[in-house]
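SEQUENCE, STRUCTURE TOKENS:
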Amino acid sequence: MKKTFTLLYAGIAYVLGLANIAYIVAFLADFGTAWGLPKTIASGDLEASLWQAILIDALLVAAFGLHHSVTARTAFKAWWTRFVPAHLERATYLYMTAGMTMILVGFWQPIPITIWQVETGWAVAAIIAAYLSVWAMMFLATFHFGHFSFFGLAQAWRRIRETPPPGASFTARYLYALVRHPISLGWMLTPWLTPHLTVGHAVFGLSAMAYILVATHFEEADLIGEFGDRYRRYRREVPAFLPTAGKRRN
């Protein structure tokens, strides 16, 4: 029964994690009408004052980011796994992420004030294609360090098979040979890749960018603590967010 529960718990978390990503994709792209979603980033009218809405939305993005950053820290995991089995820690994180997404979407204050709107058919198609391509890049980035580990299935499967977890490893290939944080880069780009940019999109984009720039410092401190000089050398040779034509790692 324990093995069945473990696999079911992790399996549902995996499906929920993918569904959560799909909702965020549709939410930021304002695909509400086309996808039948109850709420997207620009759906509805401005209900509070402009500055109240901006503050609420910025705080929601910060809370969403804090959840992702705090639960990823080594110290938090050491504390958290005193209550949650280590093999279910990542799956539990996905359930928590779904809850944070519900809070973000549920309390989001639409600010449907247009900054720009592109209406030419080919240009709209190009922007949407770029938007979806960035999300595809972010999804592919999860395979670099283990897609099924990223979504909690591998840990549960190893527990069922009674195999030990692999040791910590570090490689810098593919997307990670171009930039150190491709997923964070994607989060900074996607709010702006829309044919109809609203103030709400801008608040999300600027808040996400500000948070990522601060949180990356703490993320990299953990990585230096884990990998030492190897990660310090990686930092010197590979830019954080913007690809360059400079020296690359072998």
User: Anything to note?
Assistant: Residues 199-227 form the longest helix (29 residues). The mean pLDDT is 89. Residues 22 and 56 are 24 Å apart (CA to CA). Residues 2-237 form one domain.
